[in-house]
Amino acid sequence: MADSGNNVPGWVWVTTPAIALAFAGFIFYLSTVPAGNELEAVKGDARKALEATAAQAREDKQKVTETAKPSYDFYRLLEKQTVEVQEVEAYKSTPKDAAVKYEYRLQAGSFRSEMDADRMRAQLILEGLPAYLESSSVNSSTWHRVFVGPYTNRSKMNKAQDILVSNNVSPLVLKQKVSSKK
Q: Domain span at residue 107?
């Protein structure tokens, strides 16, 4: 059974330590507050510092207003100046009527084995692309390159490029000037 001599309510266990802590905190606060004559000295020092800062600010403001504002008249000076530009032959643009024609080809792959190159060419022909082979010698070894094209229209070349990309082939675009025959 419970001991009847120990009937202390629960709120007493909570409030007693809270009151003791509050009292200790109040004593600590009083130890940090300066005495009455010290408080007046601190207030006086703060007032002097504030007045000194205000005086310095007034002096700085006078200095700023005394200095002349810079005049920005460069836009008037630039109106009066001219720049002579020499005409250089290398930088003349081509006339509009002399349009330069280009031919585009796509390199779909480069293989050491002619059989692999021919296999890729056959796949591209089945996709409806104009594919062909070119063999060349590089560093005493033969490479078989698969090309698609030629295209004179850039949009048709882009369509062929899209078909190649959809077949997981990353083509190399080759752009070549078409020589004008007169």
A: 102-177
